[in-house]
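Entries read sequence, tokenised fold; example below:

***
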Amino acid sequence: MAIREILFNLVKKEYFWISILTLVVLILHFSIIMSPRELIFDETYYVRDARSLVEGTPQIRSEHPPLSQLLIAGSMYVFGDNPLGWRFNIVIAGGANIFLFYLICRRLALSRRASFLASFLMAFETLTFVQSSVAMQDVFSVLFMFLAFWLYLRGNYMVAIVAGVLATLTKLSGAFTFPVIGLHWLIVRRDRPVLFMSYFAMAIPLFFVLLTFFDFIITREFSNPLTRMDNMLALTRSVTWVYSDHPSKMRPWDWLIKLKAHPYYYDPDYLAVISPTLWALVLPALGYMAVKTAFANGATLFAVLWFMVTYLVWIPLVMLTNRVTYLYYFYPVVGSICIALGMVLSELFSLWQDRAKSILLRLPVISISYLYLAAHLTSFVLLSPVFMRWLEPLGRRLL
């Protein structure tokens, strides 16, 4: 009886189910971390740079800031130059992102159920899972972005700014962290304005100081951070539709218009593709968030700002510069949509529990909710590299 009571009390704990969800995601990641035993897609660049650091012949990737290179090299120092070394820190960061996302939802005053449902959708979203499986910059940038969001919502403004700087030092698009925080503070909070503005102003000099520091760790030489930044921006601007022939390049609006997969590797298939169950509901989710925001819902306002800054900004940017973009640039946006869908599902489950409502109304509602969650999970099973190893041979035999 004592064990039963302990288990019952454990299940009721705030972080029990999100911990289980995070553990499941980590297990799935580690089940495929050694497959394939060769570099996938852009791992060719980032692992090669990290390898040069481990071997003592360091190279700087001129078009990107250095922190992701150091983080990948860190796990290679521990586990060696092999798939586990390349991807270990990536996988850990991907698991941490799920837990941090739940904490963000709770700080936005979402219920425990809505927060878990939103986290469930993110955990089994195909693009999110695949991007958290390969040794690229993006998962680290999102990790520090999520950390910054959570710290900001807690009121820890100074540390949130530091986390935002670290997000930018892994990938320049991590700088999107600052408009989300700044706009939300300006619209909603406006507390401690002197401190907040001073911390915000600290971001740029801190970025250059840490950029110089991390570059020095890699090269053992001091470089001019302004020249370094100018080189990064120049190389980024040079990747245009005129000069790029990459088969997976896409315009930002096509991410939502065309359901298209970006293959990273075959056998097992690493397909960067937005889960169809999420892709189909992006625009309805935006409509829902707009209505909720109009009624002063703080969670949806933050999610709308999150979406606007991390997605909509790409449209004028590409139109003005003709810059090439790829589907995986949508990866930082996924959380904003999951917040809206988690809230909708939670409201539907609440309607089912409302005994004052007719069973003829409640039964279709609960059926739709469970069918959607089942479809989302099925989509993950069919598209993720975890299960493709067994599904592909089975499909060939059936055909």
